[in-house]
Amino acid sequence: MKNGIILIGCGVHAQNNYLQFVKKYRYNLKLIVDTHEQEHDVTKAVKDTLKNLPDLYFVDVPKNSLKINKKDCNWLTAYVKNNDIGYVIISTDPLSHKMYLDWAISIGLNVLCEKPLTGYKNINNSIALAKKLNSDFKHLDKICDNKKVKLFIQAQRRYHPVYEFVYSAVKEVILNYGITINYIGIFSGNGIFNSISEYITKESHPHNKGYGKLLHSGYHFIDLFCWFANLNTLVSRVKYTEMSAFASIYSIKDLNSQLKRVSKKNNLLLKDSLFKNLDNKVIDKFECLGEVDMHAQIELKSGESTIVDGQLALLQNSASKRSAVDYNACNLKNLSAIRKELLIIELGPLYSISVSALQNHGVDSLKSCDYNYIVTIHRNNTYIKGKAYEEVCFHNSSAGKDLKSFNKQARLKCFQDFLELKSKSDLKSHKLSISLFSLIQENIAKINLHKVGFSKIKL
Ligand SMILES: NC(=O)c1ccc[n+]([C@@H]2O[C@H](COP(=O)([O-])OP(=O)(O)OC[C@H]3O[C@@H](n4cnc5c(N)ncnc54)[C@H](O)[C@@H]3O)[C@@H](O)[C@H]2O)c1
């Protein structure tokens, strides 16, 4: 088996994860591909991290392009042939995922692709592009079957020790008692405090490319919803036949108005010119901007019966610790974001389980990884074996020093499973998640086109 690995896209995420995994476990990373624009930063990051340097190749296309040019394609294909390459990791911005997926699968490579599987510029204004997310799934699934290769998605919550614990607990109740999940609620708050100018100019997790929260980290929570919802199909009479979703969004303009209402008297940050409210005309100059927050009400039916209802609340605009004006100085992602994650699952009158993951910022602590996960279980123990009430706590520090967080540990497990080609996150297992993802993105496009954000599909 060829065990050489190519990493395509060596930005913040790949540097914090895949390069660290290679450093620690000496995986056979042969080649890193990025764009010429990033040559200096990527070369430095690789030299600073790895003793045995892989080859580096910088493509001629601009960042986030949609097509590999012929010269790069020929070079990469020849490299694969001559260097025992078996695996590719795709960690570019979502806009470039599809072109590398098509290329890698067509020459028989197994792929681990970062979420979301595919993404398109200005998708927030286009129902047709939103639907393409689902047709991309079908196309990629077909070509993987034809080429007999595997495609996996880095959906780390499926490997996260806390969510694995909850998954096993719910599965056991469903299998033992035949009761299905009737409600799933998920809240995620990133605690991002960007100025409006940063929202519209930022290049990492860009909003000016016409997509927002849903395509940034939304897929994790859509997948969590569907991963659990799929457990219901362990009961033989349940087969989902219809899915509907209603979505609403908080836009950059809504945030601009919200910040305008805040008293600036004592708030140094909001007084700074970077944080000054923009005239809506400036914001309107952008043809299409990604949403800041996204909310959805979801229903899955089997024939005439509603099996599971639920909600997603995915916010960037939630309490943050940002205090510095300089974006880099306050290192937004790591130091000033406050992350919160809540999950609640109800199995009718018999069982309920919830996860609350609240970032625990001590007064002096600036560590983003300081999470506590508390799992709470209620059982109707006349019918279900076990205690009526139970609380199980998980602390992130148990993930191990060099992994620092359960999420990182989970990404490593997903990556290791990928190398053994036994991932529980293979493309086929994402069918329901990608259908829902595409449906909600369609609703966002509808909202931006001044229609009602509701859609329904047959499964
Ligand atoms: N699993 C997770 O929890 C998680 C967390 C963060 C990001 N991600 C995902 O990882 C991916 C990368 O995110 P990031 O935060 O590192 O973004 P980033 O912008 O920091 O890095 C992307 C890298 O890809 C390169 N790139 C862009 N277009 C390219 C092209 N056509 N060819 C070659 N290289 C190209 C860029 O130059 C950059 O170095 C995204 O898909 C994102 O959704 C996943």
Question: What are the salient characteristics of this protein?
Answer:
single chain; 459 residues; alpha/beta; Rossmann fold; Dihydrodipicolinate Reductase, domain 2; 2 domains; 9-stranded mixed beta sheet; globular
General description of the model:
This protein is an alpha/beta fold and 459 residues long. It folds into two domains: 4-114, Rossmann fold, CATH 3.40.50; 158-404 and 427-458, Dihydrodipicolinate Reductase, domain 2 (2-Layer Sandwich), CATH 3.30.360. It contains 15 helices and 15 strands. The strands form two sheets. Strands 14-13-12-11-7-10-9-8-15 form a nine-stranded mixed sheet. Strands 3-2-1-4-5-6 form a six-stranded parallel sheet, sandwiched between helices. Helix 6 packs antiparallel against helix 15. The longest helix has 21 residues, at 127-147. The model is unreliable at 362-369 (pLDDT under 50). Nicotinamide-adenine-dinucleotide binds at residues 8-14, 33-35, 38, 59, 61, 63-65, 91-94, 96, 114-115, 154, 156, 204.
Q: How are the elements arranged and paired?
A:
Blueprint: E1 4-8, H1 12-16, H2 18-25, E2 29-35, H3 39-49, E3 55-59, H4 70-82, E4 85-90, H5 97-106, E5 110-114, H6 127-147, E6 151-154, H7 161-177, E7 183-189, H8 196-201, H9 213-229, E8 242-250, H10 252-260, H11 268-271, H12 280-284, E9 293-302, E10 305-315, H13 332-336, E11 340-347, E12 351-359, E13 371-379, E14 389-395, H14 406-419, H15 431-448, E15 454-458
Parallel strand pairs: 1-2, 1-4, 2-3, 4-5, 5-6, 7-10
Antiparallel strand pairs: 7-11, 8-9, 8-15, 9-10, 11-12, 12-13, 13-14
Helix pairs in contact: 5-6, 6-15, 9-15
The structure holds nicotinamide-adenine-dinucleotide.
